[in-house]
Amino acid sequence: MNFEKYLKDKKIIIDKALDEFLPTEEKSPSNIHKAMRYSVFSGGKRLRPILTLATAELLGEEIETVLNTACGIELIHTFSLIHDDLPCIDNDDFRRGKPSNHKVFGEAMALLAGDALLVSGFEFIVKNAEVKGIKKRAILKVIKEISYYIGTENMLGGQVEDINPENKNITKKDLYNMYMKKTAALICASIRAGAILSGANQRQLKALARYGENIGVAFQIVDDMLDIMQDQREMKKSTYPQKYGINESKIEAERLIKEAKKSLKIFNNKAEVLDNLADYIISREK
Ligand code: GRG
Q1: What share of the chain in percent tops pLDDT 90?
Q2: Would you say residue 20 has pLDDT above 60?
Q3: pTM over 0.85
Q4: What is the pLDDT of residues 66-92, one digit of tens each?
């Protein structure tokens, strides 16, 4: 398969759905809509929604069945990035090579745009209930899962650990757990949401969750390696490459990707896209 083309085609579908769903820049109050759109359309890879669509396809479902949920997850992801960049959290002036949201719209508007994207994300997921053939119970299950994966036991909790000044002496096990919560949780939720809406059985759900956890942790290790190699972030926190070096980080990321791919064995060679996506996680340059 032409994987590059697959990514490009899916990104076009996702971008179109996001554009149609979000309020236009002109709609009042236009400053918040401008701020929301600025971060949603500033060059994200759309990895999480692509994972949702690819999971649905693997399970024999049309992508239209899960598209609203996939896009809702992308809005939630964008909210987390805007808040992550705020001066009170990571204080980053740039995101994807462009000025971060608060640098363009001010701190108050960035905070509100993030809040609005979180709310809109759930609204988009609820809209998925209007799709023919979708059971309301499946949507409720997806909402419950996503709330759990972004809540204090996962993404938000991981972020709390990440900003803890005492995390300098963090053990390898705790660092791994923090990556699992901060980053792997939403990646895992993206895959599980696609699986739930496509009627996956427990065995498939478990295997896909394992795949998501492993690519998710690998993703964060690679992200931290890219930060060091591209000299993008002041090294104020403990990260895997900062503590164990680039070489060991690369070996660990490759091990996790291998593990992730093992979980796909139950799909008997039908999971080519998820297999390619796992490789993409470690080969990416941004
Ligand atoms: C209130 C639920 C809640 C969350 C707020 C700010 C925060 C707490 C959590 C953020 C966690 C975070 C920013 C984790 C980092 C994950 C990460 C490496 C993001 C970058 O993902 P990419 O590279 O982004 O997929 P693009 O630019 O492609 O969209």
Answers
A1: 91
A2: yes
A3: yes
A4: 999 999 999 999 999 999 999 999 999
Q: Does the C-beta of 47 come closer than 6 Å to ligand 1?
A: yes
Q: Is 96 in the pocket of ligand 1 (CB under 6 A)?
A: yes
Minimal-distance CA residue to ligand 1 atom 17: 183
Lookup: tokens for 201: 């059985």
* Residue 168 banded pLDDT, cuts 50, 70, 90: confident
The number of folded domains in the chain is: 1
Give the CATH number, domain containing residue 35.
1.10.600.10
Please give the distance, rounded to the nearest whole angstrom, from the Cα atom of residue 258 to the centre of ligand 1: 24
| Residue range(s) defining the domain that contains residue 244 | 3-283
80 CA from centroid of ligand 1 (Å):
5
- Rounded CA-CA distance 90/195 in Å is 33
pLDDT band of residue 24 (cuts 50, 70, 90) is very high
